[in-house]
């Protein structure tokens, strides 16, 4: 066969049917990445990008990668890998943020953004949601404790005037917008309670 680059680039290469194309590989199939991480940590000093696909990745593997090769590694892609948790991603995120010199608050935010973009994001949200609701209730309670009841009682006339003014302005704006879209008065009155 003639090895002509033009001929090779113009002819479609025959595709070999792969087991993954027919879903013949079970979801939990994969090779452990630990020996690879060990070799990479020892011998590959200038590795800038790393892509693992369908491999078993432990949290300790991610921690070792961040510790040993994090200073040169610019991209890490874990495609359909499993067995790692958000703790492993936390190690990667912590190293990246330490390298950038971020504060603890920005570090937590950046790590949270990174975890939310993974498949574990929904699971993490379900785990954190009760704590988030608790802190939201605590925040609203602390705001409520700052209100002085005596001050409100002394200025009840101003508060009522402001509330009535807001209701009147809201009604006028809602009716104007609904009429601007060509609806009749009856429709605009039905929209007011929902606005």
Give the SSE layout.
Elements: H1 5-10, E1 31-32, H2 34-43, E2 49-53, E3 55-56, H3 59-69, E4 75-79, H4 86-100, H5 104-116, H6 121-145, H7 149-154, H8 156-180, H9 185-191
Parallel strand pairs: 1-3, 2-4
TL;DR?
The protein has 195 residues and is mainly α. It has helices spanning 5-10, 34-43, 59-69, 86-100, 104-116, 121-145, 149-154, 156-180, 185-191; strands at 31-32, 49-53, 55-56, 75-79. The chain is elongated and about 75 Å long.
Overview of this structure, please?
The chain is mainly alpha-helical and 195 residues long. The protein contains nine helices and four strands; from the N terminus they run H-E-H-E-E-H-E-H-H-H-H-H-H. The chain has helices spanning 5-10, 34-43, 59-69, 86-100, 104-116, 121-145, 149-154, 156-180, 185-191; strands at residues 31-32, 49-53, 55-56, 75-79. It has a two-stranded parallel sheet. Helix 4 (86-100) crosses helix 5 (104-116). It is elongated, with a radius of gyration of 30 Å.
